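BUG: 3D viewer hangs when loading the predicted structure for this chain

Environment: internal workstation, default settings.
Expected: structure renders.
Actual: progress bar stalls at 90%.

Input used:
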Amino acid sequence: MILTIISTFIYGNPFSIQDNIWVGSSVAFFISSVFFLSIYRKWEEISFRFDLRYSLLIIIHNLFIAVHQSRLGFLNLLIFGIFILFKCISLKKFFNGLLIFTISFYSYSFFNSNLAYSNNYLEGDMRSEINNFEKSNDLSISNILDKNRNIFTEFNLLIYKIKQNFDVFDEDKLIRGDSVRTVELIIAKNHFDNLSLYKKLFGTGWYTTRITINETRNNFIDQNSYRIEGGLIKSNVTQLTGIVALLLDTGLIGIIMTIILYLINVKIIFFSKLDFTFKLFYISMLFVNFFCLFIGYSLVSIPFFLFFLPNRLLKN
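Structure tokens produced before the viewer hung:
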């Protein structure tokens, strides 16, 4: 939030500050699961009655989702809304759940529809998006330029972005947008294939891959330069996503230990005495956090492990 405000005052938009630091808005929403878990429990304590404090917190959170155009923030909000509604139905408090759901998604739609066009930076980004959609002949979501953006248009956009990741496997399609993340995974696989058995098992050491992977990465860029449309440039230091850093820096052993850590927590949650709906919500947010390793850096998960997991270090 602080960086968003600083960037808006200095650069005139909430994004440009990311060019000078390695933390992006996707990373910033890694730990919003802690927020949603906490507010779910607080609302549950009052039987999901309307509470102005909790409603304002959701609205403020939605403001920042809209400002950053964060699909991760939207995904967390969607999961939260679904489980709130499901829980309220099971408690025969349908209208309570519907009210919370409406406040959550109406405020999100309102901010998204108005903020996306209140800033030239965002408007240019939106027009760039629609140009990409038209090039791909995907007109089903061309209404992204419609100012009445809502949960349904955002969900369609989310699905499109997921599909876009697979464009990299089609040599006739350009590499742009979110497909760049898929490219980084392919580059990591190519680099991993050339490692010795020892390094495949135990890795090359923390922070080493962001230097050693550059030759493999630059070769890929040279071979596919005709397809690359922004977002993938040669560099001497590569900022890796969490899953790539774990695989190459700590090897298969590191990846296996990480997966075991998540599975242990799933087991603890599932066999706990928590309400069944809350268990499912808890596990869903846990899997979202694991998914985040594919889109950002893992160190931001430290607050997640401190405050979120069943046997977290800070419990109060």
